[in-house]
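Practice problem 4.
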């Protein structure tokens, strides 16, 4: 599965959630289970509205409507070798994936579009 493709992200939910947070509302953010490739049923993180909200992640600037909700934008580009190392460590430790699957996914989906 290509987690790095825009279709893998629920931008409508992200936009709605960020709008509510900016209005000071409390929101519940679903917890995603990478081992089952789905949101965990009846499990979420409760987040309270605040004056400062940090949004990070892949394609945060991609959908125009989401990008327009951000008051300040910072992009940090990390060396591709370091990104791969971080991905391997995260996926093995937090997502229970094996090295071969991680490298296959990286070579098939991530690396080909890194500099598109």
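Answer key:
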């Amino acid at each position: 599965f290509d987690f790095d493709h825009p279709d893998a992200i629920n931008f409508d939910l992200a936009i709605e959630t960020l709008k509510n947070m900016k209005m000071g509302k409390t929101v519940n953010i679903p917890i995603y289970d990478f081992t089952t490739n789905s949101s965990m049923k009846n499990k979420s993180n409760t987040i309270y509205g605040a004056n400062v909200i940090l949004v990070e992640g892949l394609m945060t600037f991609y959908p125009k409507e989401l990008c327009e909700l951000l008051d300040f934008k910072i992009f940090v580009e990390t060396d591709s070798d370091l990104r791969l190392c971080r991905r391997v460590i995260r996926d093995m430790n937090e997502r229970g994936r094996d090295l071969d699957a991680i490298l296959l996914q990286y070579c098939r989906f991530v690396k080909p579009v890194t500099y598109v």
